[in-house]
Specification:
Length: 155
Amino acid sequence: MTPEIDRAGSNRGRAWRSWLPVALLLVVAGVQVALVKTEGLSPWKGGGFGMFSTTDDAGRRRVRVYVTAPERSEEITISPSLEDAAVRAGVLPGARQLTRLARRVVERERRNGRPVEAVRIETWGIEYAPDTLAATSRLARTFDYRVDAITATRP
């Protein structure tokens, strides 16, 4: 074999390396699109490929938490100790994040001596009318956490 053939053969063996970054970007973009469509991920997160196509970012999402127990049914304020979990649940309102927030709410309520049997979490987003740009709140997801069962619904 001549040196030219050896060099060409070795370059062909390394060509996959130039395609690796492209393949990884396509995988990340595909996963983000799937999570946006199936789990409600904010397009600004998970790779940020949709950040210039929408105003649906974490700052425009709201999480509301309701606690139910005998002789008690109320919306609670998100305390500083729950803010991080609430922001994460708002950005990606999947079962994992919502369950994590609900468990932390139960722990906090019980630590403060308040009874709790169920936690309901609602995630809200803002939609803008295309013609007037009027903002309206939109319920994105509800999640019910009970001591014995978990139920999630999408409107």
